[in-house]
């Protein structure tokens, strides 16, 4: 699970500016136990100290929040947790449940719970925060969409796929209404929903969303931007998971939609394509004993960078393959040799992919 962004220093900023995104990590995630869906309990202060008068309590809550942020950034989550709870209790007593500072304290506590993988507790707080935010700011505000992203992620990692899908779809609809359909925020929402569908095996739903996200990000951010490249690579991953007969046409159609005369000069992944057929030497990966024990199979897609002489100088797993198959695939990819790629008669670096298909042995 990715570590959440730095906690909100609750010193007068707006909630919208501070709320982080939460997306499924680009690898397999084991579903945890579902939340018990009980009503959100009153947060315990875990302290015998009495609640102080408003001014003193708010000052104490501010000091606690600063300490919580410091401890969080140092990775001392267990120490930060009781302080975050007390800061929330102090602010809630002094300001009421709907105040902006209370919402920020809720978010901080939810971030800590998420980081220590108490997803059920985090989800209760996010649901409470979402309900308050909808009431005080509006159900179609951009901040509501960010909270829906967080709720979608927390539901996903607990196996609540229906709730997760509904939240991601609602967040997308809000962003389309708020920003219009040709904005980076909408591309982000398209990408997150596509990720959800990919990780839940609904490839036919993921593919058009990845395509839309890639096209939009390329237009808005440019062909070198990491967010565009990520969306494009995810689309490739789906294509590699399909039958070989459909793959070639799918990738050609996609390449046509993303065509740019300057691509060939950049060694772009689309230009390199699948490189298996261009190899002078393409060692076959081993089938490790660990893979044999678990009957591992499937396709591993390795992204490589090849220098002017045809040597592989970088290799990485592009699609989140099975780790027991990725390791031998990387070893083989790094040992591969290719015919040099030339541009205007001169050898150039090029990126592309090598695919390895494993069957049970």
Fold and architecture overview:
With 361 residues, this protein is mainly α. It has 14 helices and seven strands. It folds into three domains: 179 residues, Serine Threonine Protein Phosphatase 5, Tetratricopeptide repeat; 78 residues, no CATH class; 87 residues, TolA/TonB C-terminal domain (2-Layer Sandwich). The chain is 55% helix and 10% strand. A three-stranded antiparallel beta sheet has the order 3-2-7, sandwiched between helices. A two-stranded antiparallel ribbon has the order 1-4. Strand 5 and strand 6 form a beta hairpin. The longest helix has 20 residues. The radius of gyration is 24 Å and the shape is elongated. The N terminus is likely disordered.
Count of alpha and pi helical runs: 14
Low-pLDDT runs = 1-48, 261-270
Q: For the record, what CATH class of the largest domain applies? A: Mainly Alpha
Overall number of strands: 7
State the helical fraction.
40-55%
**Element order, helices and strands?**
HHHHHHHHHHHHEHEEHEEEE
CATH superfamily of the largest domain: Tetratricopeptide repeat domain
Based on the structure given, which CATH architecture of the largest domain is correct? Alpha Horseshoe
Give the DSSP E fraction (strand runs of 2 or more residues): 5-15%
Nearest-angstrom radius of gyration?
Answer: 24 Å
Mean pLDDT over the full residue set: 81
**Biggest β-sheet: strands ordered side by side in the sheet:** 3-2-7
State the shape: elongated
User: What's the domain count?
Assistant: 3
């Amino acid at each position: 699970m990715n570590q959440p962004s730095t906690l909100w220093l609750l010193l007068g900023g707006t909630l919208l500016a501070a709320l982080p995104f939460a997306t499924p990590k680009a690898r397999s995630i084991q579903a945890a136990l579902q939340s018990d869906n009980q009503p959100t309990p009153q947060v315990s202060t875990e302290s015998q100290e009495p609640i102080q008068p408003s001014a003193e309590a708010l000052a104490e809550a501010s000091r606690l929040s600063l300490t919580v942020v410091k401890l969080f950034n140092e990775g001392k989550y267990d120490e930060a947790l009781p302080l975050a709870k007390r800061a929330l209790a102090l602010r809630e007593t002094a300001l009421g449940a709907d105040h902006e500072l209370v919402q920020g304290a809720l978010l901080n506590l939810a971030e800590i719970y998420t980081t220590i993988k108490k997803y059920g507790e985090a989800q209760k707080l996010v649901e409470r925060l979402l309900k308050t935010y909808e009431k005080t700011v509006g159900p179609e505000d951009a901040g509501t969409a960010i909270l829906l992203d967080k709720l979608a992620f927390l539901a996903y990692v607990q196996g609540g796929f229906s709730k997760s899908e509904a939240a991601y779809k609602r967040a997308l609809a809000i962003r389309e209404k708020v920003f219009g359909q040709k904005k980076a925020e909408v591309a982000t929402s398209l990408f997150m929903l596509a990720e959800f569908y990919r990780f839940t095996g609904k490839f036919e739903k993921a593919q058009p969303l990845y395509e839309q996200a890639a096209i939009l990000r390329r237009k808005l951010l440019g062909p070198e931007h990491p967010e565009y490249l990520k969306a494009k690579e995810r689309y490739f991953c789906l294509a590699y998971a399909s039958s070989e007969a459909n793959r070639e046409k799918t990738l050609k159609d996609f390449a046509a939609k993303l065509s740019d005369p300057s691509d060939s000069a950049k060694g772009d992944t689309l230009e390199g394509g699948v490189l298996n057929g261009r190899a002078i030497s393409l060692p076959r990966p081993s089938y490790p004993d660990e893979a044999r024990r678990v009957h591992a199979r499937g396709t591993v897609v390795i992204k490589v960078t090849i220098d002017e002489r045809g040597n592989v100088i970088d290799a990485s797993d592009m699609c989140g393959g099975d780790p027991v198959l990725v390791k031998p695939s990387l070893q083989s990819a790094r040992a591969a040799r290719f015919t040099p790629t030339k541009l205007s008669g001169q050898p150039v670096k090029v990126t592309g992919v090598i695919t390895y298909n494993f069957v049970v042995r």
